[in-house]
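Give me structure tokens for this 168-residue protein.
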Amino acid sequence: MKRSTVARGIFFLLAVLLVIAAAAEISTAGSLASSLGVAPYPSKGQSAQKQNQDEGECFAWAKQQTGIDPIAAASAPPPAAAPAAGGGERVRGAARGAVGGAAIGAIAGDAGKGAGIGAVAGTMAGGKQARTNQAAQQQQAQQAKAGASQQFNKAFGACMEGRGYSVK
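Here you go.
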């Protein structure tokens, strides 16, 4: 009899702890708007429940209007990095370097040695160009993602303002 009373007490305590943990998780999750970096203020005295409903509806509307899903975009993996060789910059650099090195080597008396040195130097310069091109592509991808996010937030904010919220 005592064991069942103790077991019930432990079960009850665990159930209470689970409820408290769930409530804490819900309260720290924040609203949909805060996850977007938008802060709507209920200027017409809307309740928290009404604000959550409006945020959900405005999220769906903005997604439909812009074709952008910020949740999917945030969870999408970044584009795969291409190898530094990229678009043949190293090969072109080696060819240019070999031609230049052969010309200089011919003047100095050993065109073959000059071509080899020029090819190595050209390969290094081509690699640097490939890395520069790759960095520029990554920056363009980040700017496009930021622009899409800004476009979505503008539509979301317009919807919330139309429902009587002041959005910042």
